[in-house]
Amino acid sequence: MLARAPLLVVFLLLCINAAVEQVSADLRVGFYQSTCPQAETIVRQLVQKRFNTDKSVTAALLRMHFHDCFIKGCDASILIDSTAQKQSEKAAGPNQTVRDFDLIDQIKTALEAACPSRVSCADVIALATRDAVALSGGPTYPLPTGRLDGLTSNVNDVNLPGPTMPVSSAFAQFFRPKGFTLNEMVTLLGAHTVGVAHCAFFQGTGKPDPTMDPALAGTLRRTCSASNNPTAFLDQNTSFVVDTSFYRELTVKRGVMQIDQELATDPSTSAMVAGFARSESSFRQSFAAAMVKMGSLVGKGGEVRKSCRVFNPKSPVSGGARPPPVATAPRRPPVVQPAPGRPRPPVVRPRTPVPSTRRPVVSPHPPAVKPRPPVLRPRSPAVSRAPPPKSGGKKNVPKTNAKNVSKTKGIQKKKPGKGN
Ligand code: HEM
């Protein structure tokens, strides 16, 4: 009997392995075709409706998606509201200025009315982001779906790179451990072709960047002298368009955040920046692929939430209730039972330890998160972020962008820290 034990262990590990592979493969284009055929249309229509009145929604969703995927995989853990007992990811510094949670609520409400407990909140973020990118002139791409919503959301898990972090550190500590190449990191940072940053993020030292284009430095100094927690566009030219103007700006020293500007000067990335600055088609292709890869970071999914802001009640039989774990394997994610209505079992991805070599980030704000070793390792890599600006102020659209401001309603004003 004892002699058979090792064989049994091997057999069990093989079974678990097979289950893991099967679940990974289940993230697929058209996942809701039979269970909620109208899902992608519902998402697209509501994103379009928001975009019609607020073009900054694309930036909001891109950042939300990134902050979701880079913590514990794309599992909508960023959407959970804090409670009196427990602070969720939303309460973390870098997430204080993540916005447009109300759009996710709207979409989820419509989806629940059409197909209750079928479409995960994690998929809502991913699909809405994909659609917003397309509306902003970016690439269109088929997006695999079938993500599940996470069962945990802890403020202390949030660990994202900061805007003053050297390019090499951001790559070594955040992107590479999740399986991304340097080129993919440069590509994903191209998301800064839209959106804004609070002045605190790029004027952290209180001194202007001596290498910055003097005209831009002057404009930013004026913008940032306002007292209401001002912001500036990350791409001065086409601030609401997903294009390669961001990279061209970097080549002429008009990057607003330090890490962005360093992409153009660091010898390991400067050629990539120059390449994207020259070729729109190469960026579009790379960006679509990198977004799919980021979106394929699978978290510790376990349920389809009824409301994106709260975990489902723990009843084992109610719709979308959290399924109990079925098996666990060393260094492999546990396999859990599928939520009712879902044709497959969710799987938890393994987390790979990351060396605690984090460098201090120069910022007026406290570091977003303490160094924490375990990090997701998806089939594709993921990203993280940095400390956020002080809360309390409202976002302003700086006056540095006459071209774009005239085309849009600008950035939605929202109180950082509220989460929605
Ligand atoms: C090293 C990696 C990154 C760093 C250090 C970083 C840092 C930042 C910072 C500090 C801001 C300003 C936030 C604020 O003031 O409210 C910001 C904004 C933004 N980030 Fe990143 N980011 C990184 C990667 C990414 C990635 C991978 C994406 C998406 C794929 C992304 C999308 C955005 C967008 C769209 C905005 C504008 C948000 C808005 O307008 O509300 N970032 N980022």
From TrEMBL:
Amino-acid positions noted as binding substrate in the UniProt annotation, renumbered to this chain: P161
Domain of life: Eukaryota
Cystine residue pairs: C36-C115, C69-C74, C121-C308, C199-C224
Entry EC number(s): 1.11.1.7
Residues annotated to bind Ca(2+) 2: T193, D235, T238, D243
GO MF term set: heme binding; lactoperoxidase activity; metal ion binding
Assigned keywords, A-Z: Calcium, Disulfide bond, Heme, Hydrogen peroxide, Iron, Metal-binding, Oxidoreductase, Peroxidase, Secreted, Signal
Predominant location: secreted
Cofactor(s) needed for function: Ca(2+); heme b
InterPro entries in alphabetical order: Haem_peroxidase (IPR002016), Haem_peroxidase_sf (IPR010255), Peroxidase_pln (IPR000823), Peroxidases_AS (IPR019794), Peroxidases_heam-ligand_BS (IPR019793), Secretory_peroxidase (IPR033905)
Any one GO cellular component localisation term in the record: extracellular region
Pfam families assigned to the protein according to its UniProt record, in alphabetical order: peroxidase
Every Plant heme peroxidase family profile domain range: 26-312
Signal peptide interval: 1-25
Cellular localization per UniProt: Secreted
Residue numbers binding Ca(2+) 1: D68, G73, D75, S77, E89
Keyword Nucleotide-binding annotated: no
Bias (Low complexity) ranges: 349-362
Region (Disordered), start-end ranges: 309-420
PROSITE patterns reported in the protein's UniProt record: PEROXIDASE_1, PEROXIDASE_2, PEROXIDASE_4
Biased composition (Pro residues): 322-348, 363-376
Biological process according to GO: hydrogen peroxide catabolic process; response to oxidative stress
Entry function: Removal of H(2)O(2), oxidation of toxic reductants, biosynthesis and degradation of lignin, suberization, auxin catabolism, response to environmental stresses such as wounding, pathogen attack and oxidative stress. These functions might be dependent on each isozyme/isoform in each plant tissue.
Family: Belongs to the peroxidase family. Ascorbate peroxidase subfamily.
Name of the protein in question: Peroxidase
